[in-house]
Amino acid sequence: MAITLTITDPSITQTYEVWATPLISSPDHIGQIVETVDGNVSDYYKARKHKITLSLGYMTAGEYSVLKGFIDRQWENRRYPTITITGAANLQITDMVARMELNSQNVIDNCGTVEGVQVSFRESKQL
Amino acid sequence: MIDVDNKFHEAARGQVITPTVAPYISFTKELDPSVGIFTLDQSVLDGPDILALREPNVLQIWDLYKYLDYSDRLVKISLSRSIEFPYTVQIGQADITFDNHDAYFTPGSGSAIDENNLPGRPVRIYAGFQGQGSIPQLVGLTEDTPDINQGSRTADYHVNDFLTSICVSSLLEVVDMRDARTDEVLAAIVEQFGLTSSQYNFEQGANVIPFVFFDIGDNAGDAIRKLVQAENGRFWLDELGILRFQARASFNDELAMTFSEYSIIEVRPSENSQMVNHVKIQAEIREVQEYQYVYTKSPSGDRTSNLWVISQNFSNEISCSLEDPCYDVQNPTLGRSSNVSWFTCKDANGNPVTSGVSATSRLTSNALIITFTNTNNFDVEIDEMRLYGEPAKVTNLLKYDAQDENSVEEYGEHILEINNNEFFQSEDQADLFARYMLYERSKYNPILNVEVKGDFSLMLGDIIELQGEFAGTYIVDGVNWEYGPGYLATTLTVHQYNAPSYFTLDSSTLDGTDVLR
After folding, report:
1. pLDDT at B58 over 70
2. Per-window interface: A 21-80 vs B, CB < 8 A
3. Domains in chain B: how many in total?
4. Which pLDDT band holds residue B254 (cuts at 50, 70, 90)?
5. In this predicted model, what pLDDT tens digit does every residue of B411-468 receive, in sequence order?
6. Least CB–CB distance from A45: residue in B16, B265, B453
């Protein structure tokens, strides 16, 4: 089953159809456990934030350039993109502001094809 | 302890604790004329009015600024309040780290606050727990422009509470009082910094000081510390921003809070015990005398002293040193007279000058600064002068010495020597101070640093109970907390509290160990 990832920033909106696996969703727990002198524990808790990693497989040089454009603009404009993910089991994301990261670019031929493209998102908010 | 709902305390000690901290800053220092104390059925929730807590509230000038909430950019914040031993003036300060990825806080960046990103910006810090509201923790001023960290893209501000700002300032006017209570002198000092009597809450002090003189430029903090120490009272800016003085007699002996073992994370005894088992106080006792001559300048004779020459149509300032500080010195006038300050003049040929020379004067702690003005078309010399005033002469020397012999034998001598506080003016006063000091500090009483599940309602001077290995009753000397997303680390500095046994008529023994309230 394929899922749909849509990335939007002030310049463009781009949609990717990706395989549902591997999809790593590991909520970031913003908090700290403290152990009291009686041996019990308590939690200082702020929030749980989405942290999602998706594999996009192979990409042509042109496709990769579009994807990398989101990363470049994130830093140039100092503004995170928003993402929407549909079709994934137990994960429904709509217009979530997220800090975006891309793994190392692994070019495998003279046409610039990139292998093993992986994109990660950490939920945040727009200032 | 700040009076809050019991649910607030429960939220502080629960299993899943959700602290919230919000820094508000008024970069523009613009006043918000709409601010008032929240009035039921009139004020708007989430409007600009300040929610009055359960005690009578005072509207301070710093309440009236337009503040903006910078929680969205908060990375971490640490706050500390402590009592300065052996004084009892409490100081509060905070360090705030903001996200500065867009150079918003960088001076010269052209950001929205750039023009007003200056030292001395009013700051208010609130803290609480999700769903339980927030309570004030500190009101103060930024100390400097922020430290910018390019690597972590953060900006750090240091904030001192308003009392600290007053304590590092110099007095703007002379304080010249006689037979004044501690609270009256404190009021005269803080009013120089723009506070009115409705903006502070000072209890009536027991110490009546025969003569007080602070000069322009004297450090306000030194003056306040000495006054409060001699009273053995407490002086602080509370979390609401109200300046308070509390006399020793009204200290609260009630237990504010109990920390069970499920609220204590770690206890670290400090090597510093702040033990005192020997108190020595030495002070000159001064009393203001009747008007008398306090300065004499003999006739110059044939010699001419350039120091005393006032050129034609010119003014000259001359400082006349006084043997004792004076409560008052009359301004001198031209022409010899009795029971007033006067001076005489002569011209270059030694002929008396009887007009065209006048004087104005300003009293300091050790001199009268006189400005002579000569409107004649020839030079004159001040020939003879006598100043008439009320000197505060040393009438006695207070030498007080008390020790807890058992403690000295057991732990060695730990001496507190006070010889620079002129506000100890009687043996009784010194004795009262020493009794409290020896009662509280002469036994082995290590300072504990206790890391706890923090409760923002705790205040300095609160009495708390610790359970577990260090079970006992303690008094809070310091509160430090650091907050960041998802954590709160709170450390209390405490020393063991021995509830004094107060003197009771017909039951206590004179010269016994009971303490007078």
Report:
1. no
2. 29-32, 34-38, 40, 42-47, 78
3. 1
4. confident
5. 899 999 999 888 998 888 899 889 888 888 888 778 899 999 999 999 888 999 999 9
6. B16
**Chain B residues within 8 angstroms (CB to CB) of chain A:** 14-19, 72-73, 101-102, 260-267, 453, 468-469, 485-488
Q: Which domain holds residue A51?
A: 2-123
Give the dihedral of Cα atoms A86, A88, A90, A94; nearest 10 deg. -20
Closest Cβ–Cβ partner in A30, A31, A37 for B265: A37
Which one of B15, B72, B73 has the shortest CB-CB distance to A43? B15
Alpha-carbon distances, residue B184 vs B202, B209, B375 (angstroms): 9, 10, 42
**Percentage, residues of chain B above pLDDT 90:** 53
Amino acid identity for residue B272 in this structure: N
Residue A118 half-sphere exposure toward CB, CA atoms < 13 A: 11
Strands (E), B404-486: 415-418, 448-452, 463-466, 472-484
Q: What pairs with residue B234 in β-bridges? A: B246
Q: B424 in a domain, yes or no? A: yes
Q: Do B263 and A45 touch (CB under 8 A)?
A: no
- Separation CA B51–CA B47 (nearest Å): 10
Give CA angle at B351 (B348, B355), nearest 5°: 95
Task: Answer whether B488 sits within 8 Å of A44, measured CB to CB.
Answer: yes
Asked if omega into B86 is within 30° of 0 (cis), the reply is yes
Mean pLDDT of chain A: 91
Number of domains in chain A: 1
- The CATH number covering residue A20 comes to 3.30.200
Question: What pLDDT is recorded for position B507?
Answer: 56
Q: Is residue B205 part of a domain?
A: no
Domain that holds residue B321: 275-442
The secondary structure element, H or E, covering residue B334 is: strand B333-334
Q: Which of B262, B451, B466, B470 has the highest number of chain A CBs within 10 A, making it the mutation to test binding with A?
A: B262
The shortest C-alpha distance from B482 to chain A (Å) reads: 12
Task: Identify whether B76 is part of a domain.
Answer: no
Residue of B nearest to A126 (CA): B72
- Give residue-wise pLDDT tens across range B8-41: 999 999 999 999 999 999 998 888 766 654 444 4
- Domain annotation covers residue B370: yes
Please, are residues B21 and B50 in contact by the beta-carbon 8 Å criterion? no
B16: closest chain A residue by CA: A43
Tell me which chain A residue has its CA closest to the CA of residue B466: A37
The question of ipTM being above 0.85 is answered as: no
Cβ-defined contact of B267 to A37 (cutoff 8 Å): yes
What is the count of residue pairs from A and B with beta carbons less than 8 Å apart? 58
Whole-model pTM: value is 0.76
The answer to whether A32 contacts B486, with C-beta atoms less than 8 Å apart, is yes
B364 Cβ neighbours under 8 A, 6+ residues apart: B174, B215, B216
pLDDT at B38: 42
Minimum mean pLDDT among B268-277, B309-318, B401-410: which range? B268-277
